[in-house]
Design a protein that fits this description.
The protein is mainly α and 216 residues long. Helix content is 74%, strand content 0%. It has seven helices and no strands. The protein has helices at 10-25, 48-78, 82-108, 117-134, 136-160, 166-188, 196-215. It is globular, with a radius of gyration of 17 Å. It starts with 9 loop residues before the first helix and ends with a helix. The chain binds fe (ii) ion (2 copies).
Length: 216
């Protein structure tokens, strides 16, 4: 029986969602599918200030990935069409890679992941579930708009990272490629193109996230 035709009870769903939340939020609990691109780059020494800055940026990207996991989980809970889930399944798998790669890099830089992650997970889960409830088109449109936002951050971080931090940059470069593809996939699957005011509101919200997570 395929996963799309199997009927899950509410209890199954709850257990599955709790399991996914723990996998995302507990450091070291998620498993990557592709090895980190950082492994192919040479290690260059960073001074304390540079390492702290790089860890702060990678912490923002890690929290972004925590939000992505929650968003997909929330959506999967309420999405009507199984095709929508299937279309986004590969994207969701790639997000796990991003999550793990960022976490590994933060560790190497001597930092830790954000203490605010459970809060952002909860918020994103709620938004994802709500968007899925409204319609699949809105839900997919939300993914596309979020990915565009993420791509902007990634590009900014690429230039803001210390020049010699090739390992972090390699991670961000692969993420940038993947996220741009996720945005296209979501739109191709029927995602609604969000109007500018909605995108601006999302930018404002993401500023609050990045400012707080860089430090905490
Ligand atoms: Fe991602
Ligand atoms: Fe993505």
């Amino acid at each position: 029986m395929s996963s799309s035709t199997r009927h899950y009870s509410l209890f199954d769903q709850l257990i599955h969602n709790a399991d996914q939340a723990l996998r995302t939020l507990v450091p070291g609990a998620a498993q990557e599918y592709r090895p980190s691109p950082a492994q192919q780059r040479d290690h260059h020494e960073l001074n304390e200030t540079e390492a702290r800055h790089a860890a702060g940026l990678m912490r923002i990207n890690h929290t972004g990935e925590v939000c992505a996991q929650a968003l997909y989980q929330g959506q999967a809970l309420t999405a009507r069409l199984p095709e929508v889930r299937e279309a986004m399944e590969e994207a969701a798998r790639e997000e796990v890679d991003h999550l793990v790669w960022c976490e590994q890099r933060i560790k190497e830089l001597g930092g830790r992941t954000s203490l605010l992650n459970p809060l952002f997970y909860g918020l994103s889960f709620g938004i994802g579930a709500l968007a899925g409830k409204i319609s699949d088109r809105v839900s997919l449109g939300f993914v596309a708009a979020t990915e565009e936002q993420v791509c902007k951050h990634l590009s900014q971080h690429m230039t803001s990272l210390p020049v010699q931090d090739e390992k972090s940059k390699a991670v961000l470069l692969q993420m940038l490629e993947d996220e741009a593809r996720h945005a296209t996939t979501a739109l191709d699957a029927g995602g609604h193109k969000f109007p500018l005011p909605v995108k601006l509101a999302m930018t404002a919200v993401s500023k609050v996230m990045t400012k707080s997570v860089y430090r905490v």
